[in-house]
C-alpha cells in the first residue's frame, strides 16, 4: 500500500486530479467528505456537537447548520478547541478505518485541503500539490462553482502560501493550462512513479539505480529536508540526529542523483528496531549491506575490524526520488566519517575537484556498473580517511 497526500489551494484542481487518480485505480480518502460524514444526522458526532454548543446549531430538518456552528465555534479559541476536540478524533478514526479497509496493494490518495496548514506532509509517503494562479482559481470558482468572489479571496488569503506548499511538494502539478494537460501529467505520474513505488514498497525492493553523474541540482537540499522530516516521524526519539550527507549535500558538486541521508542512533539494536517503521515510511531495508568498508584507525591499525563499521542501509522505494538511508551508531568511525567528509568537501575546493576527477574517471572507466564504480571510488575514500580525520580534529580543536 502506498499513501499519498493530495493538496492545493481552494480551486487549484484537487478534485480534478483526484478524479483522474481514481480512474487509474486509486482509493480516494476525501477529508472534506469524512468531515461531513462524521457529523451527519443521527451520528454520535452530531449529538456531541449539540451537547457542546446547544441545538441552536441545527437546521430545521435536524441537520448541522454549518454557518451557525461556525459563528459560535470560530468566535474564540476556546470554542474552536472544543469543536476540534470533538471532530478531529472522529475524522482521524474514520480516516484510519477507510485506509485499513483498502486492499494491500492499494494506492491510497488522501485529499486534504489543509495538509500544509496542519503539518501532515511528513506522514505521507508522497505529497502531490496541484497549483494554479490565484486569479485563475478565482475565475474558475466563480464560473463553475458559483462562489462569492470576496468570500473566496478571503479564504484563499487565509490558506498556506505557494512557497509553503512548494516546501512539502514531492510532485508539483501545474494546473494553469487546459484540464487535459494536468490530466495527462497525472496519468503519466501514475504509470511511471506511483505504480512502481507501491510495488517496490510492498515487495521491499529498491528501484533500479541511477548511475550517471549529473550536475548539482539546487533542489537536492529541499528534497533531503522532505526525506528527513519523514524519517523524524518514523524514527521518533530513536534518531539522535538525521543529516543530509554525501555528494548531494555538497553545493555545486556533480553527483549521482541519489540523496544520501544518515540516521544516527545509539546502538545497532536500535538500528534494527527501526526496520519496520522505516519500511512503512517508504524506505525498505537492503539486507545485503551490513557495514561500511573498514579503514585503518588508531584503535584498529590493520583496518580489519568490521564490527566497528557496521550499519543498516534502507533505500527509498520511490523511483522518482532515489535515496539511501544509512543508519549508523553515534561516534562510530563510519558515522563520524560521513559528516566529516561532507564538511571537508564543502570547505575545500581542491578536495572537491580531486573527488570529482576521481568520480568522472570511475564513470568513464567502469561505465554504469555500480559495483565496479565503487571499486574505483573506495580506495580513494580509504586513502583520504586520515586526511579528513585530521582536518576534522583541527576544526573541533
Ligand atoms: P479544488 O478541488 O482544488 O478546490 P477543483 O478541482 O474543484 O478544485 O477545481 C475548481 C474548478 O475549476 C472546478 O469547477 C473544476 O472543474 C475547474 N477546473 C479545474 N481544473 C481546470 C482547468 N485546468 N481548466 C479549467 N477549469 C478547471
From TrEMBL:
PANTHER family, sorted: BIFUNCTIONAL COENZYME A SYNTHASE-RELATED (PTHR10695:SF46), DEPHOSPHO-COA KINASE-RELATED (PTHR10695)
Pathway(s) annotated for this protein in UniProt: Cofactor biosynthesis; coenzyme A biosynthesis; CoA from (R)-pantothenate: step 5/5
Protein location: Cytoplasm
Annotated binding of ATP, by residue: 11-16
GO biological process: one example: coenzyme A biosynthetic process
Gene3D superfamilies: Beta Polymerase, domain 2, P-loop containing nucleotide triphosphate hydrolases
Catalytic activity: 3'-dephospho-CoA + ATP = ADP + CoA + H(+)
CDD domains: DPCK
Single annotated GO MF: ATP binding
One GO CC annotation: cytoplasm
Superkingdom field: Bacteria
Keywords from the named record: ATP-binding, Coenzyme A biosynthesis, Cytoplasm, Kinase, Nucleotide-binding, Transferase
PROSITE patterns, per database record: DPCK
Origin species: Nocardia camponoti
Entry protein name: Dephospho-CoA kinase
